[in-house]
Write a sequence for this structure.
């Protein structure tokens, strides 16, 4: 990755990268880390923001603009972005803007091997988060855990099946929002079909920030993708008669659609709460 960065650092968007850090078991010297946890710090410019918004609207991950040139389809790296400001632990810096490749490699090879180093304990975890925690920000996990412990909500893990909605009208609505190749198109069909099979009218669903029908003043079923709107769930439960929220945590084109199903238990405890 460091060699790729050095070779293409004059190309956009790698020109925005200011720092590369590692953390986790790899940074502690583990001989067989589960993966390599990396943080890429970058500058946010108007051009970057514009392209990121465009990609997000299409259901694409804007950070692929960094991942593809840096990793080139290699697996085994868990890459976060501008994570330094959120982390409550030290990051080990390998490269800063202006450093040579040799300097970065020297820092890499200077990490002492520690055969006893294992995976660090993860904060704010529930069994339902296992395998999804890399896409659930720590702050959001803390809110969810607190809500479960306060018995204001219950959380279940749900695996959606690939399926298409039965209603042609709803299928057209989904098609107007996302192209067929979009991961969000796939997620929308799967979650709405899941509810259809339970006898729920899809027009009573609030789909990723929008009501399915403007003619239904109450939409008790909520879903969003990639945690885009999940922070609003307490408000939706308390103020909009919400009875269920299904969050497709990491929509993809082919991987399993693992979700969190959140159901309110005591809505009074959710008043004036925000999971941001």
């Amino acid at each position: 990755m460091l060699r790729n960065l050095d070779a293409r650092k004059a190309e956009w968007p790698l020109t925005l990268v200011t720092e590369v850090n590692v953390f986790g078991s790899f940074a502690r010297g583990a001989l067989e880390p589960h993966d390599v946890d990396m943080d890429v710090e970058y500058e946010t410019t108007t051009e970057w923001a514009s392209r990121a918004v465009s990609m997000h609207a299409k259901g694409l991950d804007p950070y692929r603009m960094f991942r593809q040139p840096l990793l080139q389809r290699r697996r085994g790296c868990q890459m976060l972005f501008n994570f330094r400001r959120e982390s409550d632990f030290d990051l080990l810096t390998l490269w800063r803007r202006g450093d040579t490749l040799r300097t970065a490699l020297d820092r890499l090879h200077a990490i002492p091997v520690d055969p006893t180093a294992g995976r660090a304990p993860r904060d704010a975890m529930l069994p339902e988060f296992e395998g999804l925690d890399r896409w659930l920000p720590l702050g959001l996990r803390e809110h969810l855990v607190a809500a479960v412990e306060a018995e204001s909500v219950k959380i279940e893990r749900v695996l959606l099946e690939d399926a298409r909605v039965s209603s042609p009208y709803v299928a057209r609505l989904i098609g107007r929002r996302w192209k067929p190749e979009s991961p969000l198109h796939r997620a929308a069909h799967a979650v709405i079909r899941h509810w259809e099979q339970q006898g729920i009218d899809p027009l009573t669903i609030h789909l990723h920030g929008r009501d399915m029908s403007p003619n239904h003043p109450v939409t008790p079923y909520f879903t969003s993708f990639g945690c885009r709107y999940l922070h609003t769930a307490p408000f939706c439960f308390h103020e909009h008669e919400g009875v269920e929220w299904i969050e497709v945590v990491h929509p993809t084109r082919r991987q399993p659609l693992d979700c969190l199903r959140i159901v309110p238990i005591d809505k009074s405890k959710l008043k004036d709460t925000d999971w941001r």
Remarks:
- The mean pLDDT is 91.
- The chain has two domains: 2-109, 127-270.
- The first helix runs from residue 2 to 8.
- The first strand starts at residue 17 and ends at 23.
